[in-house]
Amino acid sequence: MRKFFSGKVRLIVILALLLSIMLSVAGNAMGINFASMAVKGMLKPLRSGVQALTNKAEDIYSYMFRYESLQAENEALKERIAQMEDKAREADAQRRENEYLRQLTGLQKSREDFKGVDAYVIAWGSNDWNSSLTINKGTSSGIREGMCATTFNGQVVGLVVEAGENYAVVKTVLDSSLEISATVASSGYNGMVQGGYATGANGMLRMNYLPSDSVIRNNDQVVTAGSTVYPRNLILGYIVDADFDETGVAKYAVLEPAADFSSLEQVLILTEYNANNGEQVQSTDPTDSAE
Length: 291
Known about the structure:
Elements: H1 2-30, H2 34-110, E1 115-126, E2 131-135, E3 148-150, E4 156-163, E5 168-172, E6 179-184, E7 190-195, E8 205-210, E9 221-224, E10 235-244, E11 251-257, E12 266-274, E13 280-281
Antiparallel strand pairs: 1-2, 1-12, 2-5, 3-4, 3-12, 4-5, 6-7, 6-9, 7-8, 8-11, 9-10, 10-11, 12-13
């Protein structure tokens, strides 16, 4: 058996040598390097794997580049939008400012006796019974307690009840503790106007002490009767309802305020005006608030 395998092995070795010689001769004759082909065959899967990884890396790099480019473009667009929004806000503020100035000019032309200080509303304070606002000007601008606050259209806002150097607090007509002498413009009926919360009409005004036989019409305008605090014919509101009061002796009317408190940004504090007798008044006494 050992001889058989030894002979067989020798035969295989001889055949292998002969095949190697033949391949070498043939390769030389044809210019082919079979060893190189074998190596290339072995390396082909490796080269394919490396190429796949290279392609994947290129895809990832391209994606990252596009992502960074899109991110930069997105940031640029956000900045442009923010700039456009800023310009829009500035234009809107400028438009409102121009409108206020136009209204103020109109008020000054119609009421040449008015002298006042315009101010911005910077804070609101209100609860069930009280309503007030704070403005950005005070005693350094000539504002004192007891001065009337209006819109630039001559609509009553309220009364200055506190004044610091650079601020003032205005109690608004919506406050139920503030009473103002008033007149129904179309009929001349007189009464007292105050905030309507105490009677269940929150956000509205109530005109009390109207004659029992008075004829009250919806949309009638109610104006100030005139006093040392409130000039005559400032607009308080418009009648939306009327009825007899709890005593049954007098009537009352519910008013919608003329001033739009939901969008109020600026007010005019009247520092001087002509009273009923034509005398120039400087209102500084807060005790006159109920007149």
